[in-house]
Every structure is written in C-alpha cells, then in structure tokens.
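step=predict obj=LacI family DNA-binding transcriptional regulator n=343
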Amino acid sequence: MSSSSPATIEDVARIAQVSIATVSRAIHTPEKVANSTRLKVNQAIAITGYTTNAMARSLRLGRSNMILVVAPDIGDPNFSNILVGLENEARAHGYGILIGHTQNDPQRGLEYLKFLNSSQAAGLILFTGILPFGHQSMTARLPPSVGVFEPVYNGGIPYVGVDDIEGARKAVDLLIAEGHRKIAFIGDSRTRLAYSRRRQGYDEGLDAAGVPVGERIVLEGDGTIESGRLALEQLFMRDTLPSAFMCVNDQTAIGVMIGLGARGYDIPTDFSVTGFDDVPQATFMTPSLTTIRQPRTAIGKRSMALLLELLSGSAPPEAEILLRPDLIVRNSVSMPARRFLKK
C-alpha cells in the first residue's frame, strides 16, 4: 500500500475478512466483539497502519486525539484494570492513550508535559496524586485534567476514585462486629490523600464503636509490603499488640501477614488482618485476605468520560466522583484471640 494512499477502514475490513461495521465495533466498543475477531481486526490495523493515519489526520487538523496518562508505577496491580476502563472509553470516542511512567519520581512528570505543550495530547489523566513538579513554569495552565485512583494533593483538579472513607468504615465495622476493639491502622500518610481518607474512615468507625482515642494504634507506611512488615516489627518492639490489623492497602496487609507468619502466629486465630484494593494476590494468600474491592474498571471508564466532558466544556472544573467499594470477606478475620478478651 503506497504512502500516498492512507489506509481506510475498508482496507482493514478486507484484510481481516470482516464487515466494516465489525471493524468499527472492534475499534470503538471492543468489549462487544469476540476476542478472535478483535484480534484479527487489530492485526489488520497494524498491517495497514490505519490507526496511525487517523492520528496523523487529527494532528493536521490542529488537534490531538491522544490522552496522556501519567502513572507512578505501571506495575501496580491496580493500574492495569483501571487502564482497561480508561482505554475502552477513550477508544469508544475516537481517542487513544499515551502512557507516561514517572517511576515514582515527581520531576519526571514534568517531561511528559511537553506532549501537552506541543499539542500531541489533548488532556491528562493523573495517577500520581500530585501535579508534575514545576508545571507552573512549563505551562500557563494545565489542559483538561482528571486525577484517578489518588486525589491530587496540590491540584484542585477533578477526581474519580473509590470512596475511601466508606471502604475503611466497612473494614473497621466488620472487625468491631467480630468483637475487636484494639485495632491497629497501618499505613497512615500526610501526603497521600487516599491513605488519609482511609485513616479518617478508621477513626469514624472507632468513634461510632466508642473506642477511646488513647486506645488506638496508628503507624505510618508507604503502601509497600516492606512497610507492612516493618510496622509489625515496631509493634512487637513496643510490646503493644492489637488483636487486629486494618491495613491501608493489600500490599501492606501482605507484609503484616508475612511478618506474623515468620513469628509463628496463625491468622486469624491469633490476629485478624484486613486490606484495601483487592489486588489479585489477596485471593492467593494463606489465608485469603479479607479486603475492600475497588471497582477499578468502572473508575477508569468514568474518569475518561469525565475528561471527555471537560474537553467538550460540559463538566464542572472541580468535580469529584466517588464510586462505592465492596467488602470482600475471606478467611483472614475472626473473633479476637482469648488473650484479648480477658480484660
């Protein structure tokens, strides 16, 4: 196919041996097309360069149909499912996705703003929870932007995510219902708003149960497995053990469970543990982890829909949309061990 003749949807349909309508569905609503058919269409698109030519036409018209997604850690188990929702919604409206990986370095986000300034991207989806360092000197104002998964700490831009306070309340209410009162919160943070909201849910739950502030145990953490393990070691050094651990996320909970197992304790006979997120590993832990499930694909879909509304000028500039979490009860929670019931 010559470079002077841009590929058409008819070219894609002919190579994939499907109808033009099927090609359109595979591009815009891929979830409605059989996997085998979608694969054939995607292969035909790759062969013809159809998508590339469509993007080039949009750039020649002076606008971009690409959305920049800036994420701190593309290996985060939450990222891939949110990305599915983002991409499906974007493709359904003729947009594509560019991924900028900051590797948890706030300054790297600034490099990706060059895409926005050069009109290579129309809008921004931000997973980092902070605006790119130095953005004020890079651009007079940010393009239409939406924070996802982590509320933007220094931004005031629209946000779509799970209701962290409600999710934390569900976890603490479960522990209270099982008879726990000495519940440790592992993973408090002054800079991550999602974590501070989960701490708020923890406090509200214990307030409702009449547990005095002086009886609460709160340790900071960065959401990693190692931070969960280190928090556990701190508690054993202090000799102030809770009967249950309410962890800010599943990675932290896994670290706590590993530490307890290394000390010879049984979960949930000796201690109960809850997480937050419902990452894939939660199911395969021994015991399986009771946690709060985020509707990740729905978060991705709704956040992209909000960004497209901002691009069209039909959404308020500081909207916050919180989706409801689900409590997933597995095998890491039971009533407190006998030693915690004596008093």
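step=describe
The domain at 1-62 is CATH 1.10.260.40 (434 Repressor (Amino-terminal Domain)).
step=end
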